Amino acid sequence: MEHQNAKTLLSKYQSGQATDAERAMLEKWILQYNEDQTELHSQRIEELAGQIYKQLPGKKHRQNIRLWSIVTTAAALTLLTLGTWIYFGKTPISQTAPVSDILPGTNKAILSLANGRTINLKSNKTGINISADNITYNDGTKINTQVIPILPSMPLGPVPEPGPTSLNTITVPKGGQYQLRLSDGTKVWLNASSILHFPASFSGLSERKIELLGEAYFEVAKDSKHPFIVKTHRQQIKVLGTHFNLEAYPTQDITTTLLEGSVKVSDATRPVSGAIILKPGEQSRYIAGKLSSQPADLTLVLAWKKGKTVFKNAELKTIMTQLERWYNFETIYKSYPAEARFSGSVSRSKNISQVLDLLASTGEVHFKVEERKVIVMK
Amino acid sequence: MLNYTTLPDKELITLLKRSDHLAYTEIFKRYHYLMIIFAYKKLKDEDAAKDFVQDLFTSLWLKREFLLETGNLSAYLYVSLRNKLLDHFSHQKVADKYIDALADFLSKHPTTNTDYLVREKQLSDYIQKQIQALPAKMRQVFELSRHHHLSYKEIAKELSLSEKTVNSQMVNALNRLRTKLGLFLWILVASFTLVNILSW
Predict the structure, then answer these.
(1) pLDDT tens sequence across B110-160
(2) CA distance A209 to A238
(3) Using one digit for the tens of pLDDT, what is the confidence trace for A287-304?
(4) How many of the other CB atoms lie within 10 Å of CB of A327?
(5) Nearest residue of B to residue A112 by CA position?
(6) Does the beta carbon of A51 lie under 8 angstroms from any beta carbon of chain B?
(7) Which of A33, A49, A173 sits opposite B32 (nearest CB)?
């Protein structure tokens, strides 16, 4: 009898159907569950803590870039032609990475709802669909969005003010990616290390306004009466219905690349005067408060969305910054090939060692992988 | 140079919201032990406990901008970890492992109180008990920061004074500080005091 109750209780909790009383019961249970369990030795706890600490995000990059004697100019322009997979095609794909390797990123994101609920989105799904009254995975599976009630003063999370216009947030960590479809049908592909704020529903709003920090590709649903606006920390983009890629990481210049339709890009502080309009195939850059436009290299810009890491005539630093986000590691420069430029293309499903081998095959640079650190050597 | 070890939790949250990594590290230093114990007790598996705690602190950093300054850090961490554990326990593949224990609990506790206050009290009692059970050295880390941020209510209770008296004494003290130590420090202390006033 109690067995059946217990079973029902857990499965109701899992599916988000549990009542307040049932949740309270589970909370009470878990607090007392296994309390008399023999504790870990404090030394062991500190060992585990040390391992956790090493993996924590946000550590400052050490400023130990030393420029060794510069690579000869003759070797400066290095071209890797690896559009084809001849080299990697032969190597068997192993499921587990060797000790000194880092696995590629996966589908990973945290959804924080305006009602205070946070959900770790599943890695075996690729995206979610938002609508005014529910949220599902893109294969139709329902996501439990009910609040787990605790005293209002307790959560540190967003202030609960449920309503269709309050903002939800999807956070994609380093080593992650995720897709979502907003309530108006607009599709968003989020790249690693990105945060997007969006309302549960746009209904009743004159503008469809969202905020991005990081990189995303947008396919905006056409609706000429309700302009779609993407705000970033310094720039804003106004569109009616269009396809574009926006790269707005806090430490980099903001790049907006248009594929289809038309967009108006402007300074966040002067949306009217400083605006420029992009045509398909063009790209705008926001550098030190100034916007400029130029023709874009679309294969380069869209590579991430197509599951590739592509670089063309790029400095090592640019490549490493990009790799750090997808593979979630930290680069330590013991040497820096200042004159070398690299070009190449690698699938995002490869382990880091395979990408680094590729770069090293030019002879310009070598790497050592230690846990989540990549050391750049001569 | 700011001494993070003596900062109260609330100050750490304010700094964390500004992406202060030292504040984040201090929070980790302060709470890793309690969190690892909690996760380990419930999971009985070192590696799993490690993963859960890592996940907990990782999301704390990722969501730092959205934290509420008035929140209670210890309750936040416990509730987040508890919810992560409950999500895990109720997952179909693992639920069977816990059915017996839960069924046993249900037979002893046929009903429960759903009142928020009661539930919060339960949790804060649990947290207090856990802090008390810490090894002396770990507990000190807490006490160092804790006695700096007693609220008026708590000070009044300790000294058996009315809150109003304590309040006016604080204001006097602040005024004295203002003249002696200059505006900057005053603002610092005042804003911190204000946080305390607002939080109860």
Answers:
(1) 888 777 778 888 888 898 888 888 888 778 777 766 655 444 455 445 444
(2) 9
(3) 877 888 999 999 899 999
(4) 25
(5) B63
(6) yes
(7) A49
